Amino acid sequence: MGATGSKLEKALGEQFPEGERYYGLENFGNTCYCNSVLQALFFCAPFREQLLEYHEKNKNNGDAEENLLTCLADLFSQISSQKKKTGVVSPRRFVQRVKKQNELFRSYMHQDAHEFLNFLLNELVDILEKEANTPKSSSEASSMPQKLANGQTNLHVNGVTKESLVPWVHKSFQGTLTNETKCLLCETVTARDEPFLDLSLDIEQNSSITSCLKNFSSTETLNAEDKFFCDKCCSLQEAQKRMKIKKPPNILVIHLKRFKYIEQLGRYKKLLYRVVFPLELKLNNTVENSDTEYALFAVVVHVGVGPNHGHYVSLVKSHNHWLYFDDENVEMIDESTVQTYFGSAQEYTGNTDHGYILFYESLNSKR
């Protein structure tokens, strides 16, 4: 990394952002799934700021129990406080903590970066929620009911719902979906809100994020065995159902469902489809207030032809420069390079590097 680091510093020259650090992460045997997600989160500005603030407030708390949040805060602080602009750090303590917390990540087998991201965000929510419910002094205890009243919400990730009191995690990632069901007999519309931290989108060949989002919000008819129980009719009725994004998050995380279970094969297969993800995304047809615009700032890329083997790297936009993070190695890339990770227009191709998790930042929140 010494040579790579100096090469990166030379490439940026006087344009190297003041106070910024570009560090690779050591790989401990198939931990690229972890490294790629960590780099994307490190360059998620609001998340990093809140995590460093948390570290600053808690660094002198000798009684604090080590957990995933303290390990992540320590790692981000370690990178941010490096004297050199570039280099390599070892996320050993964090990786050990991940393996201790979840047996899924204990083996040296190829892991899923999206599963890891969901696990990590859920763990951070749990830890902060417990801390919010454990006042450390009488003054904190007296203010706790107000915190509960102001911060309480349901969190829904991959079907898991939990009470959450974590304003800064919500502020970064949480949006709200509205599940609307319309009875075709009495035409009563039933709406149910569901908070979300990311959107998992089905993909098709030669498509785009915009078309995938349209499909996500398309109307589905419930009939035959799938009829809907209408409270007004007090019986099962045919109905129309659709999902809409009611409140878009500040950071929109989109997971492309590139791994599909094929019944004939009895296993999962990677879909190498070409899915165009734009540098700027406007949410149309999915949001009640449809003027939300986003800018792409990170992509977790899956390299390989199958779900059980391969590699993860990440592309990150920092201070108007695009960077390529591959474990210990960091290099500068042209913005035009990002489109080479859209996927493959043909089924059989030599290109196996595909965008898997996309991170978009709301431009509206910056205005």
UniProtKB/TrEMBL annotation:
Q: Which GO terms describe its biological process?
A: protein deubiquitination; proteolysis
Taxonomy of the source species: Eukaryota, Viridiplantae, Streptophyta, Embryophyta, Tracheophyta
Q: What's a single GO MF annotation on this record?
A: cysteine-type deubiquitinase activity
- Write out the entry's keywords from A to Z: Hydrolase, Lipoprotein, Myristate, Nucleus, Protease, Ubl conjugation pathway
Q: What is its EC number?
A: 3.4.19.12
Q: Does the keyword Lipoprotein apply?
A: yes
The principal localisation class reads nucleus
Record protein name field: ubiquitinyl hydrolase 1
Q: Where in the cell?
A: Nucleus
